[in-house]
């Protein structure tokens, strides 16, 4: 039972990060040119898919998925709001930093998840996060 509780806690932490990412992308999309909006919308949709997958996995483990992004969401919104006021390049830089943080969270905390849930993180969530991170990094390089 303790392993399941630890897995649910770790998955809920990942879920908070994903909810925060969705909220941050939603905010940033309104502050970028049409040329870059499609990439950000794709990244946001990828995070939305991970939110749903995490909610489903947590429920199947008998846990209760968190509803909001928690403290990270507040922090991410403040960072993104500041970046938005500085322009598109700063907004995209802030999003990439968020992607860096999300990638580091998955890599650091994957061992807190056990059994089939660990396979889910390692084989589904982490590769999806790497793809989203790469998309945003490519977009950022086009801005220089």
From TrEMBL:
Annotated TM spans: none
Domain of life: Bacteria
Pfam assignment, any one: DUF2383
Domain called DUF2383: residue spans: 8-108
Protein name as it appears in the record: DUF2383 domain-containing protein
Lineage: Bacteria, Pseudomonadati, Myxococcota, Myxococcia, Myxococcales
